Amino acid sequence: MENRTIHLYGRVVLRGDVHALSGLHIGASKEALGIGDVDLPVIRDAHRRPYIPGSSLKGKMRSQWEKLKGATQNQQIGKVKGKEVWIHACEDVNCPVCTIYGVTGDIAKDAPTRLTVRDISLRPESLDGTTAVLYSEVKWEAAIDRVTSAASPRQMERVPAGAVFGPMELVFSIYGAADRARSGDLLTGLQLVEDDYLGGQGSRGSGKVAFEHLSVVLKVGDEYRELSDERFNDKTLKELFAAKADLLKWIEERIPIRGGG
Fold first, then answer.
1. Regarding predicted confidence, which is higher, 164 or 142?
2. DSSP string, 199-247
3. 149-179: per-residue pLDDT in tens?
4. What is the mean pLDDT of the chain?
5. Closest Cα partner for 214 from 182, 237, 195, 193?
6. What is the pLDDT of residue 260?
7. Number of Cα atoms under 13 Å in the Cβ half of residue 194
8. Per the omega criterion (within 30 degrees of 0), is the bond before 50 cis?
9. How confident is the model at residue 33 (pLDDT cuts 50, 70, 90)?
10. Residue 87 CB coordination number (10 Å)
11. Could you write out the DSSP letters of every residue in the chain?
């Protein structure tokens, strides 16, 4: 009988803050507009505070990795405003996209998704007294008819530049020796997002972010205890990249794989 054992050797936990360097718009679903409402509101939690859904950050990291690797868009996952939405999904155990970020339920995989991304709350003090609307600003945009110059204006809500979201938490599970090296791909994923944008309307200036105050901890072994290291606390993304070789060596030493994984 085939051995179906899955062994969790440990987890790499990357924590930090997300700083909005320009206005950030992650949209909420809205079927009807009330009087005085903006056309494109931001998503908010039960306390009316904007937040970054973990699915938004994880999805952006995944899409950037697909572009980086030139991965075939072969799996339709739905439609948005009548347009089909496709992602890459495969059964290749060496695929960095599917192994880290997961696949749809109809694709067979030998192990669970490695990466979990938590929702990221707004730190209200980062915007204390700076906004007229509750933790947001309204940006006017207009589509211009190229022939008549007629404008079709609309309002878009954004969390203003200067907002800080945290704590961010990315949890990467180690199921084998190859995963220890793959954990370093989280840094590349975050760098790809920094160099692109998060949320919507990025080509119009929104969504530039920076990942700061980053720390790495390990949760290891049958005792599942947390291990920290002063070398990897309160770093910028650039500093963690500079220490990547040292970081991966630390992960390899502190999360041993019995039998080679």
1. 164
2. SS-GGGT---EEEEEEEEEEEETTTTEEEE-GGGSSB-HHHHHHTHHHH
3. 554 556 778 899 999 999 999 999 999 999 9
4. 84
5. 237
6. 54
7. 15
8. no
9. very low
10. 21
11. ---------EEEEEEEEEEESS-B--B---SSPPTT--SBPBPB-TTS-BEE-HHHHHHHHHHHHHHHHT----EEEEEETTEEEEE-----TT-HHHHHH---TTS--SS--SEEE--EEB-GGGGTT--SBTTBEEEEEEEE-TTT--EEEEEEEEBPTT-EEEEEEEEEEE-SHHHHHHTTHHHHHHHHHHTS-SSS-GGGT---EEEEEEEEEEEETTTTEEEE-GGGSSB-HHHHHHTHHHHHHHHHHHS--GGG-
Positive or negative torsion for Cα 94, 13, 207, 50: positive
Structure tokens of 26?
């992650």
Query: Which pair of structure tokens corresponds to residue 23?
Result: 């206005």
Predicted local confidence at residue 17, as pLDDT: 98
